[in-house]
Structure formats: structure tokens, C-alpha cells
Amino acid sequence: MAHPTQLGFQDAASPVMEELLHFHDHALMIVFLISTLVLYIIIAMVSTKLTNKYILDSQEIEIVWTILPAVILVLIALPSLRILYLMDEINDPHLTIKAMGHQWYWSYEYTDYENLGFDSYMVPTQDLTPGQFRLLETDHRMVIPMESPIRVLVSAEDVLHSWAVPSLGMKMDAVPGRLNQTAFIASRPGVFYGQCSEICGANHSFMPIVVEAVPLEHFENWSSLMLEDA
């Protein structure tokens, strides 16, 4: 959960998000080093009247500043491509959930069960209980078992939406007439918040996403109660 004045990312709750955080730190370190070098060169050029005649026309320096950026780009590209392929991996999911975007709420269908589905609306501000977050809490949470591969099929019924949960490293466009899929593993129990990340109309800001990861035994109890109510 993000908090006021937070500068970094939310704490990772999935292996993919942990990899993304490591890659962010790796890339940011390279940016810091390049920025420091450029700043030093600018200050040195501005603050000195001396000129090195060997720098004005030097084949060696041209070779270095041609090869060095290429090496830096490779050091950034290789881990980036690795994470890209990791995010596309879907290996034997234990549970499949279809998330449908509507104006302006989400509906979830647990396709491994015969009749388990519900709509998820934002809780109005006047109905919030102590401890709930304004504009982020829903009347029905998407409950999943922790430490289990979950596949999410994402689509929309009217306009473009985007199903995004930052702490899980999830962001998938919901396109009408098209079924996109993504997968994740919640590595710890908790409640993880997200929002629609595609401008979808007047109430775009009011269709939050709440994913609750619980132990498998608790998930089985929850699904049994939901099926009984259905």
C-alpha cells in the first residue's frame, strides 16, 4: 500500500515485482553514474581555461565513447528482456479468474468453479468503515490463494480499461472483444490495491481493484461460502 510522500515503489508481493524492483535499481545506478560523469565534464569545461590538444582530435576517445554506450545498452537490455519473458510465462496455473471491465466497475468469474462470480464496486466514501481506504476499497474483493500460480484473463465489455495492481507487478489492458491473459504468484498474504489504468470515461477514478491473498485453506472456505450463497 502506497503512503503519502512515498518516493519509491510499493513493497513487492510477487516474484515478478521483486525482479522489476531489482532491474529498476540496476538501471537507476547506471543513470546516476552517467549523470555524474556528464556533470563532472560540464563543470570541468566551464571552470578551466586550459585545453588539452590531444582531446580535440583523438581516435582513441572516439572509439571509447562509441563502444561504451553500446556496452551500457547491452547491460540494460539483457536483464530487461529476461524479465519481459518471465512476465509472459504461464506454467500450469492452479486457478483461472476472468476479470471484465465495465463502466465503471470490475466483474470477476472464477472459471474453475461452476457458478462463482461477482461484481466489484467501489465503496462510497460515506459507507467506509474505520481502516478502509477512500477510492480504493470495494464491496467484493478478488480472493486468491497465496503461493499459487494464478492466471487472469482480462477483457472489457464497453470501452478500454486496464487491470493494474502495482505491488503484484500486474498491468494488463482490457480490450473489448479481445481476451488478454497474464499470470502472477502472491508470495505473501495480504490485501493489495490497484486501479483502472486506462482513461475510460467520467468515473475512471472510481473503479478500484482489491486482491486479497490468503492461505489455501482459507480460500477453500471462502469459495465454499460463496458457492452456497450463489
From TrEMBL:
It is found in: Mitochondrion inner membrane. The chain crosses the membrane at residues 27-51, 63-85. It is a multi-pass membrane protein. This is Cytochrome c oxidase subunit 2. The gene is COX2. Component of the cytochrome c oxidase, the last enzyme in the mitochondrial electron transport chain which drives oxidative phosphorylation. The respiratory chain contains 3 multisubunit complexes succinate dehydrogenase (complex II, CII), ubiquinol-cytochrome c oxidoreductase (cytochrome b-c1 complex, complex III, CIII) and cytochrome c oxidase (complex IV, CIV), that cooperate to transfer electrons derived from NADH and succinate to molecular oxygen, creating an electrochemical gradient over the inner membrane that drives transmembrane transport and the ATP synthase. CDD domains: CcO_II_C (cd13912). Residues 1-91 form the Cytochrome oxidase subunit II transmembrane region profile domain. It comes from Tor tor (Tor mahseer). SUPFAM superfamilies: Cupredoxins, Cytochrome c oxidase subunit II-like, transmembrane region. PROSITE patterns: COX2 (PS00078), COX2_CUA (PS50857), COX2_TM (PS50999). InterPro entries: CcO_II, CcO_II-like_C, CcO_II_C, Copper_CuA, Cupredoxin, Cyt_c_oxidase_su2, Cyt_c_oxidase_su2_TM_dom, Cyt_c_oxidase_su2_TM_sf.
